[in-house]
Amino acid sequence: MKTPTLTQPRRALLLVASLIALCAAVLPTAAAPWAGNRTQFASPRFERVWRDADLAVEQGTTTRSWTWGPQPWFDYQEVYQQSPNGLRLVQYFDKARMEINDPANTGGSLGGVTNGLLPVELVSGRIKLGDGIGPDQNQQREPADLKVAGDATIISNPSPTYASFRSVATIDNGYRDPNKIGQRIGTTFARDGQLGFRQDLANQPGTEIVAYEPVTGHNIPRVFEDFRNAGPVPAITAFGYPITDAYWVQTEIRNTVVDVLVQLFERRTLTYTPSNPAAFRVEMGNVGQHYFQWRYAGLGGPWVSPDPEWSIAYASQTGGSAFEMYLMEAPGTEPQRILSSPALPYSMARSWVVVAPKQPQIYGEITTAEGYRQIARFSFFPQPIQPERLGNNTANDYHPAISRDNQQIAFVSDRDGNPELYLAISGHSVNNPIRLTETSGCSVEHPSWLPDGSGLIFESNCLDGNWQIYRADLSYGLSGNGNITITRLISPRSSQSLTLNGAADRWPRVSPNGAQIAFFSNRDGNSEIYVMDIDGKNQQRLTNSASRDEAPVWSSDGTVLLFNSDRDGDHELFAINRDGTNLVQLTHNNVDDGYAVWGP
User: Fold this and answer.
1) Does 521 share its domain with 403?
2) FRET label pair with 25: which of 268, 363, 496, 525, CA 20 to 30 Å apart?
3) What is the DSSP secondary structure assignment for residue 310, as one 8-state letter?
4) What is the CB neighbour count within 10 angstroms for residue 203?
């Protein structure tokens, strides 16, 4: 298989890209990229906040339950209009989400780290994308149909959800409950919002109301007031104001239906389970898990699921002259043809969905009957299905790079005449994308996302006619109706040049930890595989042969690279360690194999 270069003719469908650029803004200094190990803290400031609150819990030197959770499990750059480039660094824990809205702000009890208003968003259905409360600062969804308390995986028990509480919650709607100080809480709350009363629950210790919050108009029982005021984080910082009164709900915990007192605050939920051991009778709810399930529905549960062992997807001419898609479950295993129609993979979606750990969702391209290259999504669980075409254009759309949160696709299109870079957000339809670049007389190819979603690495021949590799950071904003958009176009000239020489440097792919870029270059006379640091430094050659070694991609753990090589006469897949050792040939036949994807 001939990979796209300037000197070799195409022998089949090629992944030719045209990109040119994304925002010339600088990545915020506190915004560390995803580090491959997702349980690693994304910022030293996050680690300090966690240690102050939860290190004692981990070490068993306190009887208090978790404030954040045992460890982080997902970080990203999420859109927030008032943050630099319209992006803020966040990291998710079982109980909450940490945020750095302004990297320059180190004040306050948490050193500039904030604590998301997750219950407010879950109940209202409004994702906050800025400081304001209007539609230009919020994205409206359906309220979360997820249980507030109990085992989330058990759906047989009709426990109240966040959506259930909308009728009794203060969410910019003026709702208030009367002052009930001195009364005991025996009010029950059902999934459909119906209220009841049980005297036996009112008789439980700690249910007397001892505080009334005049800002939001809600009552707080002693058991919750004592807990939030005794914590390692100031109450208003950790919890915010209450947005509901406390209610008794029935839910299922470890296959047993139990009575739980629940109260929703702006930033946390509190639960009181009298039947629990004393140290865990009062706990913060798993709001971080619930919110992540709601906002990133397709990503599964990274807090409970191990990182998948991804299959290798690649294209092969084994079945004839056209490239068809194959899956290899692990390096060296027998490949299986999964599509008998022409198709090329380009990127793979991240997921911790337990039911299909080795069945990736792949983004690539197909060719229409009219000869247009079109973007498609390929799903293989529970069995291969026909590609889902994501656009319907009389133009060429190709090189779809799916972001690490599965929310955005960067791709190339010639729909406006010249190949340009475009961005499809949310629903992934590429029919009405956001245009990112505006160039003429040159090309850009092969977008690759930075792991934290803050920008792209790409190749372009726009400056001197020679292919070089660039980095550009995206700058996000919001339209008047709250839709995410890009605030300015970019070009290679306004981007950071990572390579600059008289050779062709092509096919850049960012490593999973965001520290390195793999690419191929003909600077030594023929195409070889190279790696360099994310800033372009420490460029190192990994292969050394008289053949053409091209199109490198990373394994999901960042330790191995796959690439195409014609060293045996036709293109085959090879694997090599990141340090250039242990070269292994993976495919052995007399046809071309290539265009591999191995992990997100």
Assistant:
1) yes
2) 363
3) P
4) 10
Higher pLDDT, 202 or 386: 202
Q: Record the pTM.
A: 0.89
Could you list the residue range(s) of the whole structural domain that residue 257 is in? 44-72+96-284
312 neighbors 331 (Cβ within 8 angstroms):
yes
Residues 6+ apart with CB under 8 A from 553: 509, 518, 561, 562, 563, 596, 597, 598
Rounded Cα gap, residues 359 and 350, in angstroms: 11
> How many separate helices (H) and strands (E) can be counted in the chain?
6, 40
Q: Do 495 and 553 reside in the same domain of the chain?
A: yes
DSSP lists the bridge partners of residue 282 as: 272
Could you tell me the pLDDT band of residue 21, with boundaries at 50, 70 and 90? very low
Distance CA 220, CA 189 (A): 16
Residue 163 is classified by DSSP as G
Note whether 575 and 494 are same-domain residues.
yes
Nearest to 93 by CA among 302, 283, 239: 302
Find tokens 């990203």 and name the residue. 76
Residues 410, 485 within the same domain: yes
Is residue 521 situated within a structural domain? yes
Chain CA centroid to CA 514, Å:
14
Confidence grade of residue 563 (pLDDT, cut at 50, 70, 90): very high
297 found inside a domain: no
Q: What is each CA distance from 248 to 188, 201, 486, in whole angstroms? A: 4, 8, 45
